[in-house]
Amino acid sequence: MDLGSVPVNPVFSRRLISAVVVFGVGMALAVAVSTTLGLLAGRQEAISGAEAVARNLSRSLTESVERSINSIDVTLASVAELALEQGMKAKGFDLRAPVAQRLTFIPYLRQILVVRADGAVLFDSADQSDGRSLDLGGLLAEHERLPRPLVIGLPVDGRFIGAGTRGGGHRTIPVSRAIRGAEGRILGLVIGAVNPDYFVASFQGIEAESGAHTHLWRFDGLLLAGAGGSDDFHQDRGSDNPLFTRYLKEAEMGTFLGTWGDGETWITSYRTTLSWPLVVSVSISQNTALEGWTRSVETIAWPVAAVTLIVLGLTAAMAGMLRKRGRDEARLRLSDMVLSNVSNGVTIAEVGRGDLPLIYANPAFEHITGYLAKNVLGRNARFLHEFDPGQPGLDDIRAALAEGVPVSVVLRNQRADGTLFWNQLSLSPMRGTDGKLTHWVGVQRDITEQEEARASLAKAYDDVAHYSEDLERFSFVLAHHLQEPARQMRLQAQVLLQRIEDMPDTGAEQPAHLIIEAAKRLVDILRDVQAYLAIERQPVAGGTASSESALAAALNRFIDSERIGPVTVERGLLPRAGVPQKYLDDLFEILIENAVRFRHAERPLHLRIGAESHPDGWLFKVEDNGIGIDPGYHERVFVALERLHTGTTYGGTGIGLAIARKITETLGGRIWVQSDGTSGTAILFTLPMTPGGVV
After folding, report:
1. If you placed Cys at 686, which of 21, 37, 82, 616 could pair as Cys (CB 3.0 to 4.6 Å)?
2. Pair 361, 375: CB distance under 8 Å
3. Residue 502 C-alpha from the chain's centroid
4. Whose CA is closest to 470, among 533, 531, 538?
5. Are strands 420-431 and 407-414 parallel, antiparallel or unpaired?
6. What residues does 328 pair with on adjacent strands?
């Protein structure tokens, strides 16, 4: 497998991912939409079927009601003719036999009465007692108002009309026909008591068979008979029934979907009789009509939902897999591009295939070693250092390979042309998801130039160190040898001065004194130069110095009240510093000596010494009220042998502050001056704290 070229074929693209997503979502939507449409179609089919059943039932019931009412009308008409023949003025007449014969063929007609217009009952098939009367005002008004000969009245309680409390729990529908004279005047009424239970029984049979609620209404919305009898839910609900509030006003027959007072949706088909003001309605609950469809939905919905979710899940998983594969391929191509263009050599060795053979080598490896990748793949990388198998770094590599840990060494390797080069080799273990070691990645960097430069630099450092030692040795020797002649000059000048004391007025005393002072000053300069050069030879790291002890030693050495007058010392915080005590002693001696030397002639010396915490450690401040330092000389005072005053005025060698700067900088701190040039001088310097910041 040639990993150098990474032959990964792009089997997909963004368009493919989009196509997969669109296809999967489309399939899921297609299943969901087709199922939904099918269920909606099934629902509509169930409702249409219920509407057809309601229409057929309403048609057949209307025909049956028309036949029954027609029989009642014929019977009442024949009784009216018999009453006219016997005369309506008679107190009573006998119609028992012909009425009984007619009632035999109409079982739902319980009673027939003949009542004169003044209310006198002339005949009652249920009761032959004379002397009764009925209030016919309402019925007569309806006969005068309605063009039809037959009038269907309001249902009344009782088994018979005018029978008082007989047959409690029953209801009767009064149906009347007018008895008119030759001139058309109403002479009386023939009233029939219709048993509504006849219709209720047939309605209940239909309801038990089909689940439909059937009702017989008057045209004004009054319920005459229903499947529920006197307990029918729709009893006395014609006023809020959409059948009467809307649909009967639009057409005498039809089918509609609506809610009644119970809040349930009903599929209602209605028809009106042709000859009488009656309406037959058949209502099927929408819930009842959709029971089968609901069961189908429950049976189909879950599998369809599961299939839809599975399709969507598979689509999401496939899209995610393709995106991950795309990212992996992009990373692989990017990695190959990076490895092909980096300046370091990169190799990959496979674990578990013999002797850790190389399976990858980038172009930089070929450039560094001179070996072509095709010639090194399958070989162990030790061919680069076989000429010198005893190199120290090889033991580190063997230990790292055994322990499975990364390692970095510098080896002397050999190129293909035989030339040698320094190779900085880093080996890193690669592990699989199970944590098992699978590969070793090696990174080679040619550091031949750096090694040669390092060797040259090391030699230069050695030379500089050697020269520095020689220079330091020479400076001390020079200082020692110069001090001896200076001391001799001073000694001989003193001898000369003693001899010329016996020779007054010669003028030789002054040159002798000048020679003595010059020799003394030369000795002091040589001593300070020697101290300046000795700073670098003193230990820097470690140690803890007491600033109180250093200040006390400096004050004890340079403060002499009898010689310099009264001195006031104001002490602040004097912490312990993380430096050798000798350095801190020297610093305070230099600064206190300068404060004494450059004190103001017209005011007593006042010193303020203290320290405070600072980002760089401790910030020490040694302040006096002496003559001050002009701001233009704040840096020059730290230059060796730089003097701002003549030696005869203030004395000194001009090296003290240079030594102070060298000490603070050697210790990692810094030192500077604050002064307006007239009111005194403040020397500030920083030193490291002790470990833990102990004061």
Report:
1. 616
2. no
3. 107
4. 533
5. antiparallel
6. none
Contact between 62 and 280 (Cβ < 8 Å): yes
In sequence order, the 6+-apart residues with CB closer than 8 A to the CB of 357 are 349, 350, 377, 378, 379, 380
Alpha carbons 248 and 271: distance in angstroms, whole number: 9
**Is 253 in contact with 14 (CB distance < 8 Å)?**
no
Query: What dihedral do alpha carbons 350, 351, 357, 363 form, nearest 10°?
Result: 30
Q: What is the pTM of this model?
A: 0.46
Residue in 530, 535, 541 with CA at minimum distance from that of residue 663: 535
Rg, the chain, Cα only: 65
Token pair in block for residue 666: 């050697």
pLDDT digits (tens, 9 = 90+) for 219-275: 888 888 887 654 555 554 556 678 888 888 889 899 998 876 667 888 899 999 888
- Residue 170 or residue 486, greater confidence: 170
Whether residue 436 is predicted with pLDDT greater than 60 in this model: the reply is yes
Tell the residue number behind the tokens 């040039």, with chain if given. Answer: 677
Asked if 162 contacts 191 with a C-beta cutoff of 8 angstroms, the reply is no
Structure tokens at 579: 């430096």
Q: What is the DSSP string of 130-198?
A: SS-B---HHHHHHHHH-SSSEEE---EESSSTT-TTTTTT-EEEEEEEEEE-TTS-EEEEEEEEE-THH
Q: Mind listing the pLDDT tens digit for each residue in 311-329?
A: 888 888 887 787 777 676 7
| 3-class DSSP state of 261 | coil
CA distance 283 to 269: 6
